[in-house]
Amino acid sequence: MVKERGQKRQYRSTLRQDSAQRTRRAIVVAAGELFVAHGYVATSLADVAAVAGVSRPTVFAAFGSKAALLRQVLDEALAGDDAPVAVADRPWFKPVWDASGPSAVLRAYAQVCTLIGGRAAAIFETVRRAADAAPEVAELWTTLQSNRRAGARMVVEHARSLGSLRAELDEERAIDVLWLLNDPAHYSALVERCGWSAESFRDWLASAMCHALLPEPAGTD
Q: Global pTM?
């Protein structure tokens, strides 16, 4: 009898956890849509609650603040889900680590940037626009730039460990260049505004990265 009661409690607990997770997901999806469509400043937690089909106190209890909710939307856009796994440890980042030379590293990284751009370019732009009006978002924007640079550093160091980069580029300059190129704003401009396919963008980005960072082939003027 004791065991049976324990099983019932566990069953009820699982149901509550599943319900809370579905509610949290609905809130994040609603917030992402509203932030992109109307902007961060113009979107209230009450707006998010209405679209998600929950109460405003529920939204506040789940995330604590609008800024924290924006950060969650951004994190999930970058990673693809809410699992606590760093981007560099995701399966879709693995080809960067498995690459056999600098060119392969950069081409794999171009694919990563394309994937991230498809998910996160719009919310990146939302954060950029809100940074001037909301101090808490300005801090998030600064963190985003630092994180992009850290990603560029990681890739440059890995590429350099497998072969040579341009002789005229020291490591910091190479990181500067890759940090410029890994900006999701490029995806937004070329795919979302100019109508390029994601594959065309990926190929262009890979070529741009290789041209900017790798030595010219022998015999090239």
A: 0.86
